[in-house]
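Chapter review: from sequence to fold.
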Amino acid sequence: MKTEMKELEGVSETALWVAAYRARAGCDPYAALLAGSRGETIIRTIEQGDGLGWGIAVRTRAFDEMVLARAAEVDVVLSLGCGLDARPYRLALPPSLLWIEADLPGLLEYKEGLLPAAGARCRLERVAVDLRDAAARYALFAQTGQMGRRVLVIAEGVLIYLEPGAVDALAAELHASLRDAYLIIDHSSPATVRASSQLWSEGLRRLAPLRFGVEDAAGYFRERGWEPIERRSFAEESLRLKRGPLALASRLAWSLMAPAKRDELRAMNGFMTLRRNS
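The token string follows.
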């Protein structure tokens, strides 16, 4: 069994970093194995690294719940840029469900060495693909569309790292390829992207440059054929889960906040489940 990751770049380094945070937060029993020593090293060597994990914990929990809410309704789950997520091993999924993990070849090879696909709770397949390659990406979507009656697509921690044109293409290609589908995403506003980029250290900007933000995520995806059916704000989820350095104090502040200000904060960051429009 492999214990050290091959030299990877960009989003794969981010996957190690995220897995280390999941391990620290206790929200994924497989995360420490997958993060290895390299994941912890990344956190320790990045300025502000120790203070960012609670946000990953909130996102992980929100996605877990949103995935489980749809898992019994679909035949296929397609996890785009799956990274070192271990949901096929740790969530109570239907054994008949086909879960497809799509990411870079080196990352999937590493992951298979630590968590063989045969050990998952449902049927698990891994497809090596660079999502920046338009032809390969479209071929994956078309093939997935032929596999099942209804598909759930997960894009966790993916869109914010893409150029706006790539997000447009992704939404359009999924809509064209999948006749009956759900899509679960996380989203951020342009102001959040700018603020995060300014606050992050040079090491963080190198590791995970932020590119895509949208003021009205619901409207953006609605225009591209995807109707929001569940929306959660990051602010309210962090309060609900009591995650973050000021979570308890923030509950009081939230309750006293003007409605317009709460709406503004809800739009800054969040999670959505969308349904493909016919």
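Two observations follow directly from the output. The chain has one domain: 11-276. Residues 1-11 have pLDDT under 50 and may be disordered.
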